[in-house]
């Protein structure tokens, strides 16, 4: 029996191609095609867009994206065992799916994509935050993509949308909210995946703003947020001492009380400090 898109059900695909999930690759598969189509819909209208998918695995979300009308999908998968299953999907949707057997951290996908580009992925947990950080911090803005629709562990999704003075607030919140509008659009229980992970998951949708909310250099913001949140309980005058010999004066110029703790500083204050530091160099 075939699924609604005319291809075999994902359980059969996994059995046929012996795609037993590997923990080392962060493999927790979505097998319900209604659910993957619903996630694809969270990415917005795909008919006039190219979509970059990282980690298609057996292709559940890939099939959702294609069934929802994506103009073209580029799927980047590290696990060569999945190539035969993905080739069957490509043959079913001629000219609309390209697959790269590569590590997403090692390649530049832009050469294979035509704007407008959306990114949609059930990310491997081990590389998810690294990829997100890279997508959020190119030197120039706007980036090559218009939106990101990403599955994360719920705790990571909460860190992306967190507000100051909360436990979840940190580097990911600053970098995400600086240049995008971010919201959690779906929650999924562990049972939605095979094998089920230990924790709940959430889909987060980030839309690239035309301009950052406050000016700053990405490289500087990366450095100061890493320094500040590395010792989040300390006062910023001590946690950020290594950034500049006159850090307390620079904080004053940026409107920051040196006795504050990192989690009390707003996005606007972090950006002001980044600019003051750059001007002082
Ligand atoms: N998209 C599929 C789904 O929703 O069922 C699979 C999602 S699974 C959570 C993550 C996928 O990312 C796996 O297929 C894994 O092999 C792949 N992966 C892990 N590390 C990767 C990397 N560095 N580059 C590309 N793919 C990777």
Automatic annotation (TrEMBL):
One of its GO terms (molecular function) is 16S rRNA (adenine(1518)-N(6)/adenine(1519)-N(6))-dimethyltransferase activity. Residues 35-210 form the Ribosomal RNA adenine methylase transferase N-terminal domain. It catalyses: adenosine(1518)/adenosine(1519) in 16S rRNA + 4 S-adenosyl-L-methionine = N(6)-dimethyladenosine(1518)/N(6)-dimethyladenosine(1519) in 16S rRNA + 4 S-adenosyl-L-homocysteine + 4 H(+). Pfam families: RrnaAD. Its main location: cytoplasm. The keyword Methyltransferase applies. S-adenosyl-L-methionine binds at residues 28, 30, 55, 77, 103, 122. Keywords: Cytoplasm, Methyltransferase, RNA-binding, rRNA processing, S-adenosyl-L-methionine, Transferase. InterPro entries: KsgA/Erm, rRNA_Ade_Mease_Trfase_CS, rRNA_Ade_methylase_Trfase_N, rRNA_adenine_dimethylase. Its EC number is 2.1.1.182. SMART domains: rADc (SM00650). It is found in: Cytoplasm. PANTHER family: DIMETHYLADENOSINE TRANSFERASE (PTHR11727), DIMETHYLADENOSINE TRANSFERASE-RELATED (PTHR11727:SF7). NCBIfam families: ksgA. Specifically dimethylates two adjacent adenosines (A1518 and A1519) in the loop of a conserved hairpin near the 3'-end of 16S rRNA in the 30S particle. May play a critical role in biogenesis of 30S subunits. Belongs to the class I-like SAM-binding methyltransferase superfamily. rRNA adenine N(6)-methyltransferase family. RsmA subfamily. This is Ribosomal RNA small subunit methyltransferase A. It comes from Maritimibacter dapengensis.
